Amino acid sequence: MRPKKKSHHLRALAEVFPSRAVTDKEIITDAGKAWYPAQYLINSVKLCWTHLLGSDHTFLEAKCKHCGKIIKGETEFIKAPPSMNYKNHLRNAHRLSPKDNFYAEPPSPESEHSSPEGSQNQISDDKYRSDQSSDLGGVIGYGQVMEGYTPESDEFEEDTKQARYDRFMNFSGDQFSKTQFLTLICVLENMSFNSMDNETIKTLFSSFKFKPKLSAQDITNNIVEMNGHIFDLVRNNIENYGSSLPIYFDSDELKGDNDTKKKKIDTFINSSCYQVLDTPFFSIGQHIYDNKYLVVSLQYCDRTYFHKKTIPLVVQQINTNLLSYNKVLQRNLTDVLTEFPGLDMTTMSVVSPIDMHSETSKELENQYSSIGIVIHDSILNIIVASLIPFFGTSIEQTRKQTQSSSKKKGSIIDDLIDLTNVDINHSIFGKINRCYKEISSRPFLSTKFKNLRKNTSDDLEMFKLNEFQRNEPSSAIEYLEAFISYTDGIKMMNEDFEEESFCTADFEMIQTLRDILSTGYQLIKLLSETMHPQYHNIAFIIITLENDIRRLIEVSQTERVEKELKRYLSDIVACREMLSQDNDILLSSYICPVMLFNNSSFSLLYPDLSLKDIQDNVIDVALGVVGKFLKVTKSVHEKNQINTNHFHENYELVAPMDLFMVASEISDDDNLLHEVIENELRLDFGRYVKKVMSDYNDFFSEELKLSDYEREGSVFINRATGNSLDNITELIDIHLPISNKFLKDYLQSDTNLLFAVVIKYVLTMSTSSYSSALSFLYDFKPANKETLLSEVVNIKTFSSQFNISNIVWDSDDLYSICDFPGLG
């Protein structure tokens, strides 16, 4: 437990006990034993501030506030304070050192002329400052430590905020865990990794009167340092919530006629669903951050089940061998995560442009399978891998992928589409490069090209013949568009080229490739902006892309272009067929309004099934989800026994691959519960489908009026520019946002509890959950210094403490960590 109010120790006291006015506020009673706060633990040479340590009245034992462990003195016969044992415990168990429990503040006039009264172990202020200044870079304050607490009144809270503000503004030392403090802000508040150089961070540093050099690597390192605390917190919360699941129904209560039985079952279902909806559902996902880092995060849906909360666990650079980070998950979470219903451990296969069926991918999948992580194939990775052949052919490489030493930090496209081992010479890019070289090396061609360009209104300086660089694939669209603008001139010069000439198929290929890369890059950006983004929309995204490729094939005029497009199409069709085999996708797609409204998408995804067959399968999968949480037991004794041994049972990961029960194992009582749940789910899904079919079109029209677009027949037009949208832009800017809003509004209406449990499960996998889990990190732009400092002062994460090394975790802190502006 934590003190109700802050202690105000103005100096280090020499007695074991502080004054009664102080101790009365901080006495902790545990099992009838009173623990008093000790302001220090003393050995022969060192004064150690103990933060929130308690000790008994003989001072032979100390109780660690961080974990509750009791630390004794050297022996129970020698009356020596347990200072060294306690310091060793802090270092070994919590990775804390004595200086982690200090903060620095300017010396007060009183401390310069007097020293605290005390016993023979007293140390003067002057000597103490001299001994410690080299370690702490400033004067050690004997004042308040930064304790996590919840103010009981608004007035007290405002005073506390002002006190925090004053301490920070007066702070000038170098050992306040500055990088950890900034990590806390950057990861859990309103700034992104790449904001280190912008005016926002400069304003912050100038306000705090220090200017440390903080890099993205510092942030990465500090997330690793936070892992121990965060993993402990996550484990405790999962155990707390998981211990109550599944919820068992005692079949002995099913006595009487069928109406009585049904009423009891209805009561059980309703009360149980409320309990499930109040229980966080956890999942493991990934997020590409700052175009450079792969952040493996633990996410969960709380009672507002359409809002996702995210905690970073592991950070690693993308396009490196990612087979190692499963060790972190295995060591810290797997034992707990695999035991509880409501948990979905999913991760993308790998974020690097490799063949999805390659040996590396299989090795990755095998390693994850061994630790119980379900592999959801990375749609992002499939799209990246299918685009790479357009740039050239793969070069034989060693087993370990090599990185280009000259590769610059670029966009997400540059980081994901790694062309290091791709030979572009035989692609259209190589052909254009050779053309540019020939023009530049032959004065006759160079002069003719410039003369031809003079006939245009374009500035010649804008059209330099820059070659395509493999380490900048993001420039491919601009590169192709520039060549397209030269088309007329190149055609007129075709007969003058000695090395290269361009035929009709070449020009068509360049136009088509520009369209393919434009849509592909849009999807890569969409899918990399959130962790497992748009999971409930994945099938519709892939189907839209497939339809767009088929459209390009229909209008293609040369066999060469058609062949390339069919190769691309085969990759996407294979992806769509893979999705159709995944029951998670079946369930999640059925709650996607735009997918359901355009039922032709289901016909393409499941060509051999009627809509009724699809709905029957959806109900079966939904039953599998509900069956993870609600079960029947034969007696009160058996139920208690099951709950008692819950942690020792091997529950399967929550993936709705199985049915609610195996038919041969269903008893009469089980069958009744099964029937009631199935009937309720059929009614709920039926009401949802009816709502979509009757209201979605009008809802879409009203939302479209509020957007920047309008519809002219089957085409969508940008009101400002008058330009029509391509299929993928239409998908990203219009259909997905409106579809998500429709579903969110429906969930906020009075929906049935069983349906809400199923939806909450699906949204746990869909880590975007209608608001990008980390999008607020990009959106926050403080208007001025006051706005920024107000945000900093009002941070309530990590128990309101800025020094994350000194956190005392409580069971409810998982909510407070993620309870901050931006997640709405």
UniProtKB/TrEMBL annotation:
Q: Which domain of life is it from?
A: Eukaryota
The annotated region (Disordered) lies at 98-132
List the InterPro entries: Znf_BED (IPR003656)
Q: Which Gene Ontology molecular-function terms are recorded?
A: DNA binding; zinc ion binding
Q: Where is the chain membrane-spanning?
A: none
Question: Domain BED-type spans what residues?
Answer: 43-101
What keywords sit in the KW lines?
A: Metal-binding, Zinc, Zinc-finger
UniProt-recorded name of the protein: BED-type domain-containing protein
Q: Which organism's genome codes for this protein?
A: Maudiozyma exigua
